[in-house]
Write a structure and sequence with these properties.
single chain, 210 residues, alpha/beta, Lambda Exonuclease, Chain A, six-stranded mixed β-sheet, 7 helices
């Protein structure tokens, strides 16, 4: 059975035809590595650092801008909490469908838990209802079972800010229903219309007849 990731939900919401090409037809289009280079470096460095690995050689290879971003992350109050897991795969079943994703880090302070997501670019426009927020919080709640509070933290390294979303009982119900409905809709759909408004930055644009 297919397991829906936040990227799959977002892709379908942006352009069902792109979803069709990427996840139904399994067409892979290479993209320039430069698009993701800084983000990948910071994520890998954070993972090694939190695990207690020696990162001295990696630090020396950072550019000046990358080093500034890394220091911002080091100084972040949530990054300084007690380490639990990093690059952590989580999944759970909602209404007969599997959803899951990979957390940048899971931290704690007593029985308060914090899911960290480092952003070197923009954070979502509507973070409270972003699919990544919903999937990660619901999966973490199912895995932890017992906790005092559970929060998703978008660490905005570009603007040096934090966006904090706590999983309240109301949000938990809202998120579970939203994810269940999204899974059902995508699973049952037989049409994948194109969204021309999203073509500009789409790697599949040359395959479309728009």
């Amino acid at each position: 059975m297919i397991s829906f990731s936040p990227n799959m939900f977002k892709t379908f919401a942006d352009c069902p035809y792109r979803y069709y090409l990427k996840y139904v037809k399994n067409l892979s289009i290479p993209q320039p590595a430069s698009y993701f280079e800084k983000g990948k470096k910071i994520h890998a460095l954070a993972n090694y650092y939190l695990r207690g690995d020696d990162i001295s050689k990696i630090i020396k290879g950072l550019s000046g801008q990358e080093l500034k971003v890394w220091n911002k992350l080091l100084d972040n109050e949530f990054f300084q909490k007690t380490y639990v897991k990093s690059e952590y795969n989580l999944s759970c079943k909602i209404g007969g469908y599997w959803v899951g994703g990979r957390l940048d880090a899971l931290m704690r302070e007593g029985e308060d838990y914090f899911i960290l997501d480092y952003k070197t670019g923009a954070i979502p426009k509507n973070p409270e209802t972003d699919f990544q927020t919903m999937v990660y919080l619901i999966c973490a709640a199912r895995r932890l079972k017992k906790y005092n509070s559970l929060k998703f933290i978008y660490i905005d390294l570009k603007n040096d800010k934090n966006c904090i979303i706590e999983l309240t009982p109301e949000r938990k119900e809202l998120y579970e229903n939203a994810l269940k409905n999204a899974c059902e809709f995508i699973s049952k759909t037989e049409e994948y219309p194109q969204n021309s408004e999203k073509c500009r930055f789409c790697e599949y644009s040359k395959l479309c007849n728009i």
